[in-house]
Amino acid sequence: MTATDWIPQGIDRAEPSAARAYDYLLGGPHHFEADRQLAEKVLTVLPARTMSRQNREFLHRVVAFLAGEGITQYLDLGSGLPTLGNVHEAAQRADAASRVVYVDNEDAAVAHGRCLLGDSTNTVMLQADVREPQSVLDASPTRQLIDFSQPVALLMLGVTQFLHDADEPRELIRRYREALAPGSCLAIASFTWDNDPDTMRRTVEMFKESGRTPIVPRTRAEVLDFLGDFELVDPGLVYAPQWRPDQPDAPAARSNLYAGVARKP
Ligand SMILES: C[S@@+](CC[C@H](N)C(=O)[O-])C[C@H]1O[C@@H](n2cnc3c(N)ncnc32)[C@H](O)[C@@H]1O
Prior knowledge:
By secondary structure, the protein is of the alpha/beta class. It has ten helices and eight strands.
């Protein structure tokens, strides 16, 4: 892939993209000026670089855990760009036969994602809205790659903040959980109020005023509710850096993100 192969025909570089802004925050190469401006605006109120790093590091640890549990199929809701060690890279490093369905509703994320994935057969980029579980679960790329009679890893990392109360997030996540076989896991990383409520209040306000999709941080109890009757694996729902850290002796860092994994009994 050359330096520009990730850029599809007809992309509007002036329209900021959440997925490209996230790539910028992660230190990746896939962004334009409008995305950098969006990310810099978020950085005026939120430690978004630290949070993005914490989120991506959690993703790596969680996929290694899930692969270790023998899971080889991943449904990644709100995936962003398939780069910088995203799910298929981590999962297929552990088991080359792992299959990944990335789901994003943003035109740019999907267009770039398809360029980046090329003719990969085990990984697809599905354009769909997480808030419509049936259309995600019934989409033909999902049905082709995921065998719902076997354990699946359902990933909701850095996306639940885009689900508003009117979307009935508890109910829609329940519908995903219901579709999964026993032994499946739901991994979640969710913005929270609990660590630094003042910063989160300013961030919510900023998103509201900017005309972008508003964000909804959650309390610990609300995130636990998303997991329903799935059983939390150790160490439970914790601040993202505290979930099975690579260096367990490091001082426990806090975060504006809760992270956890729960298994379907
Ligand atoms: C923070 S980014 C990617 C996070 C990625 N899962 C990770 O952990 O590194 C969140 C992504 O969610 C996508 N997104 C937001 N709302 C969505 C929705 N309703 N349906 C599908 N994707 C959505 C955005 O387009 C964006 O690419």
